[in-house]
Amino acid sequence: GGITSSDLVTKALEAKRAKVVGQAFAGVPLWQLGPESRYPGLPFIVFPGNVGDSKAVAEVVRRWSHPERLSTRELLLNAEKGGYAVGAFNVYNLEGVNAVISAAEEERSPAILQIHPSAWKQGGVPLLACCIAAAKQATVPVTVHFDHGSSKRDLLEIMDSGVDSVMVDGSHLGLKENIAYTKCISMVARSKNLMVEAELGRLSGSEDGLSVEEYEARLTDVNEAGVFIEETGIDALAVCIGNVHGKYPKSGANLRLDLLEELGDVCGEKKVHLVLHGASGLPRGMIRECIERGVRKLNVNTEVRKAYVDSLKEHPHTDLIHVMTSAKQAMKAVVAEKMRLFGSAGKA
After folding, report:
1. Which domain covers residue 43, as residue numbers?
2. pLDDT confidence band for 142 (50 / 70 / 90)
3. pTM of the entire structure?
4. Is residue 33 domain-shared with residue 105, that is, in the same domain?
5. What are the φ/ψ torsions at residue 278 (nearest 5 degrees)?
6. Are both 228 and 276 inside the same structural domain?
7. In terms of domains, do 85 and 22 share one?
8. Active site includes 235?
9. What DSSP designation does 202 have?
10. What share of the chain is helix, strand, coil (3-state, %, to 5)?
């Protein structure tokens, strides 16, 4: 109440004056205590007893404990300014969500919770709601992204469900058809203030049951990239430079870094962010070279998923809680290591 607040300020905190700097909540003033007080410059919320309902105090605490979240667009803009990349980690269940959030908070890193169509098919709205709730409660910037949206129906449903960004995947289409499909979704997404990522070229490999044979893969064409960005109005471009979904061959990854540099120049000119799928299994030095050439979002799935499965094999607990805890810790270790590698640790 007002009298209690006054007594606290004048008697306990020994303030003689305070500056009113705004409102913490409608009708709830925010003061800054004067230099003579016990804690000079301390922000002090004065909560009048006749303001708000029974939930008002809790709402103020929630807002101040968990400020409004940054968008995926803002996460990547910050990464651009700081010269690092943000990890987008595929999640399938509560353990995966908790692993990413826990690693992000421990490393003080921004992060992206990413849902693949196969995970959406299995988990649906409850999985998405879990991701959104976890992102809102996180003490570091975390956003929710829908990956590889090749179904217009799925994308339209997802965009109305609270995600921060979507990937429109028309990579299986010809250039004109890909542009038309991406442009259509991009227009809807922009009306909802969502960031849009799209793919030009086609990655080989297998991810969650979706396979593209090597002979079907196609590198991103630099000239087509400029046209594609202009026509579709996307915010981020996922490029194909020899990266693959799933495991790389025993001979190792063979990325066209020269092509990535050219694509980086195009994207930089168009103010579009570079995205690289298939970051699992890439050597540390190659990851750093990709970031130096402008990659701002790196997708990680295979290594995190492998950590989960290996944990189940190596620690066959009979108690479900122990199984979940072990799996979470295994995934968290992989996620945290990637955040340090990507340069996002300490950037939240």
Report:
1. 2-65
2. very high
3. 0.79
4. no
5. 75, 40
6. yes
7. no
8. no
9. B
10. 45, 20, 30
Residue 245 within a domain: yes
- Residues 89 and 31 both lie in one domain: no
Helices H, strands E: what count in the chain? 12, 14
Distance between CA atoms of residues 292 and 277, nearest Å: 16
Confidence at 28, pLDDT banded by 50, 70, 90: confident
**CA 147, CA 344: separation in Å to the nearest integer?**
21
| Bridging pattern class, strands 111-115 and 142-149 | parallel
**Catalytic member of 7, 53, 147, 164:** 147
Tell whether 39 and 138 lie within a shared domain: no
Select from 30, 54, 58, 34 the least CA-distant residue to 44.
30
Rounded to whole angstroms, the Cα distance separating 225 from 230 reads 9
192 and 122 within one domain = yes
Which of 37, 50, 114 minimizes the C-alpha distance to 302?
114
CA gyration radius for the chain? 23
Do 217 and 298 belong to one domain? yes
- Name which of 66, 60, 63 is nearest 45 in CA terms: 60
Cβ neighbours, 10 Å, residue 247: 14
Nearest to 145 by CA among 275, 245, 340, 306: 275
Asked if residue 289 and residue 193 are part of one domain, the reply reads yes
User: Around Cβ 213, how many Cβ atoms within 10 Å?
Assistant: 9
pLDDT in tens, 32-76: 899 999 999 888 888 888 888 888 888 777 767 656 679 999 999
Pairing type for strands 195-200 and 236-239 reads: parallel
- At 195-253, the pLDDT tens digits run 999 999 877 555 555 444 454 468 899 999 999 999 999 999 999 998 887 777 777 78
**Structure tokens, 192:** 């909802």
